[in-house]
Amino acid sequence: MDFDVIIIGSGPGGYAAAIRLGQKNKKVLLVEKDRIGGECLNYGCIPSKAFIELAHSVGYLHDMPGVKSDISIDMEEWQKWKWGMIGRLTGGVETLCRSYGVQIEKGEAFIKDRNTITVNSRDFTGSNLIIATGSVPVKFPSMKDVYYNREILDVKKVPANLVIIGGGYIGVELGTAFAKLGTSVTIIEMMEGILPGVDRELVKPVERRLRDLKVTVRTSTKVESVEKADNYTVRIEGGETISTENVLLTVGRKPNTQGFGLENLGVEMDHGYIKTNDRKQTSIPGVYAIGDVSGQPMLAHKAYYDAEIAADNICGIDSRVEYRAMPYVIYSDPEVSYTGELSGKLSYFPAAANGRSLSMNNTIGTFRIYTDEKNNVRGAGIVAPHSSELISELSLAIESGLNAMDIGLTIHPHPTVSEGVKEMAEGIYGLPLHFKPRS
Prior knowledge:
Elements: E1 3-8, H1 12-23, E2 28-32, H2 38-43, H3 45-63, H4 75-99, E3 103-106, E4 109-113, E5 116-119, E6 122-131, E7 135-137, H5 149-152, E8 161-165, H6 169-180, E9 184-188, H7 200-212, E10 216-218, E11 223-228, E12 232-236, E13 241-244, E14 246-249, E15 253-255, E16 269-270, E17 273-274, E18 287-289, H8 300-314, E19 328-330, E20 335-340, E21 345-350, H9 355-359, E22 366-371, E23 377-384, H10 391-400, H11 404-408, H12 419-428
Parallel strand pairs: 1-2, 1-6, 2-3, 6-18, 8-9, 8-14, 9-10
Antiparallel strand pairs: 4-5, 5-6, 7-15, 11-12, 12-13, 16-17, 19-20, 20-23, 21-22, 22-23
Helix pairs in contact: 1-4, 1-8, 3-6
């Protein structure tokens, strides 16, 4: 065999697997048809957070009392910076892969059999195969020429108005960001509420903030079609139409399983995903699948984790997935983060009682922790500034079997938003410092 492992796809799962295997002295081939880093680093996670950070900075100054500012945004200049930043990041990943002896082949891979792939008319053989092909946006033929995440994050000017079809996390994140930059935003969601599947108590502060930003949110509403002439015409079920400058379609993503010869393997599938066991092995010996293509949740950090598991098992280390403390983050305003099971004994602490949140003029939100009958941490949900940076403490608590008092007795620096984590935990045993729970 030419290689110990062949990896198709260089997103977070693919490149992480390549690095981990390279660190264990395996001979690895990493194949990528587009850009190293995949969707996340080039078109999704990283550029979207950069855009959200831009919007947050502008919105922060706009909302801060006593500040009078007239900010103009040169989006073309910002786009140049963004692509330069992405280039540094993806270039660093590529250099790191090569430093561990990983061979990178740019081109489209096609699977001939479980040990052989073709790239650029050349055959490569490997003892093991990892499929890390990610996911693609869900598209509808009735919605023509709409924007998806790639296109909307590459705009050269801030649109005057924008209709977002889909009120999931991508729609809410980008809708919030564009609203802060002055765009008139309408979010249309066919379900009863935005952020379907998220605990409603965590969603309420986000809904409130969207109202403050004058974002129009239409739920239980179905879009029939989108047509483009000079402007877009969005046709709502029942006959109503909306004219808008831009339309962003964010109704979900589906696993990328087409066009690279997956059918030649005959792997077992599960509702469109490649079915894997808890070692990330498929039904075919020596073939693994990781990240989005192998099932929910479609998260970059889940792909990193999957990569560790697959790499370990290829190297003879018996590792198995355990997603019970998987953190979820929505980069809304305020940010929403949650992990574990949101059930059991509940304690909460309001963001409005946190000194750091007050000093940031950002007090919408809540800290919520759930424990079992012995006060061991089961889960948590945080809606607060920078909650994405706080949730890992709770995932660690769940993974380590910590008690709420372990968190409550841990010294947290003051003033920080993280003190809300300490105080919500103190609430489990009735002793928060800056908030008196209702009896």
